[in-house]
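notes to self, project folder thing:

trying the whole complex as one job this time. last attempt i did each chain seperately and stitching them together was a nightmare. two parts in total, labels are on each line so i dont mix them up again. if this works i'll redo the older ones the same way
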Amino acid sequence: MPLVELRNVSKIYHLGGEEIRALDNVSLDIAGGEFISIIGPSGSGKSTLMHILGCLDTPTRGSIKLDGIDIHGASRAELAVIRNRKIGFVFQFFNLLPKLTVLQNVELPMIYSGISGRERRERAITALQMMDMENRAKHRPLQLSGGQQQRAAIARALVNSPKIVFADEPTGNLDSHTGETILALFSKLSQEGRTIVLVTHDPEIAARTPRRIEIRDGQIAKNVDARLAGLVRN
Amino acid sequence: MPIEPVKPPVRTLAELGSALVVPGLNLGNAITVGFKEIWAHKFRSILTMLGIILGVSSLVAMSALVKGMENGMREALIAIGGLEKVRIEQQDIPPEQQHLADQAVGLTVHDLYALRASAPLVTEAAPEMRAPRNTRVTKNSRPTDWANVVGTWPAAVDLNQHTVEHGRMFNQVDDDYARNVCVIGTNIRDQLFGDEEDSGRPPIIPLGQTLNIGGEPFVIIGMFERYESETEKKRRQYLKEHPVAQQTGPARSRGWGGRGRGGDFIFRMKNSTVYIPLNTMYLKFKSAVGTNSAPDPRLDVINIRVADVDTMNSALQQAKNVLMHSHKGIEDFSFMTQENMSEGISTAIRNARLSGGLIAIISLLVGGIGIMNIMLASITERIREIGIRKAVGASNPNIFIQILVESTVIALLGGIAGIVASYGFVQILVAISPTDNTPVITPMAGLVAFGFSALVGITAGIIPALKAAQLDPIQALRYE
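result (full assembly):
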């Protein structure tokens, strides 16, 4: 059974009487442990797809199953729990809370899981160790470099050991060298067996993932295996 | 994998329901976050709190002032004999009995005997025959400014809540023999023999000395204690411990203004009492003196005490029945209870409480609006933060509670600060307008004010919290 099952999903917005199909009848399966990129130009609907996959949004039509749970008909509160337990997000602008320390930022998802303070701390430190960030635990996000901030954000995404991690342009705000290390980090996480979905507009970054999904005008344009297409360099 | 999955694992929607309870509301964390937010915007938070501080402190100060007023009034009520005391006074004969006017006897000592014998609900009774006007109390030609010279029975001490501190009250024998003896209040002593305060010496106890009442020599056989309000007592105690510098130069009187010795009017009046036996009063001043030589055996007032305020009505009816007999059916008397005064006190307190409370509530309301305003500004600033929190799994109730807790924390901190400030506030009020009734801050007032500030905080937080909770996570994350 695939980890994510998307069936005939449409997302339709109404803007001043005009119907905008951000997603048009998209079906997609993502298996556990896959490293996959969603690629497309801006306005193509890739963000909408990620939001629906990430349970930040609900589709107008169609059904999603995530880890066996039918999201269709889930309340907002239930979606919050799913995001909390099963999904990790990494954003382009890191989205760490500037007033909290790195450790507190990483603890944040667990606060909403009702995990005790001590366990929160232990798990947060473990996650930071994985990212080689434990010596920055007491720093504020703004005292860190972009790469360090993104690593802290990845630690936060992983701390609840989610089923799937969504990374939305994770290197978009980093210089190419730092971006490279972050991408390497994702590859490593993928090799460890995590399911990772990379959302990007950059084909070069997308080329690093074994599987690519290209979104164009709200529909899946191509569904190619990068390895078979000879797009993988290493 | 180094990180364990979160327990309990969630597999189905049904399990989600049970997992919902766990993240629940997480109050402790919300409170911590609330404090951090307040700390992060110290100046803004203090300004916001100021509204609540002013509201709470004015609420507490107002209630303290009213409480002080109430205490003063109750003291005065007790000083004049309490609720059980009833005055029977002369009254004009009603129109339908006008033709019997020449038969009316007025209040006499016979009424007292009649009441004693036939009105068991009246536990005590004492006459009051006042000296004729212009009767002066002097000592070596030194007059008192005013004295309440009353001929009465020994029972008056009890009835009018007097306490004989030195010597004794005159007794039945003194009355029977119409002796020239008197028991005086401290105000009389102060004016005729010198004030213990002014002299700085041990108090003068003029027992055995003679003074003149209306030209007749009277021996002082007793003196009452000094009656004063609690405030006055404290003031004198304070003066004793912190003596003021002696006034230099020739002795001078500062006139009538300001804080007179003897404190409140009621206490001053009581301290100016001179009691002499009823028979003495009658024989010396009322039997055949002055230009009109007809003897006047009428009493001015009969004070009675009923056993219980609850049986007031039946006791008064009983007394009336008895008196109607002794007055030949002519109703030339009336009853004056202290209920009117008690009701007056209650009304005054209620009015003061209402007007003061209204002002305080309005300022609390303004404080609440301030909180709401600042919370709205705060969530606009933190839209992105709210988006992040939602993305990592905060539910709408989580966000709602967090904002609500923040506004409540602001209000409660303001409430605590307001209670502390109210002490200072009351001191300032006392300094600005010295009253005889010291404001009293009651724990109850503090509690009520605190409760109100909590209420205001919660109410003010509801709309911003709802707004924050209903933010769409995607748009909140995009917000710049």
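what i see at first glance: Residues 226-230 of chain A have pLDDT under 50 and may be disordered.
need to look closer tmrw
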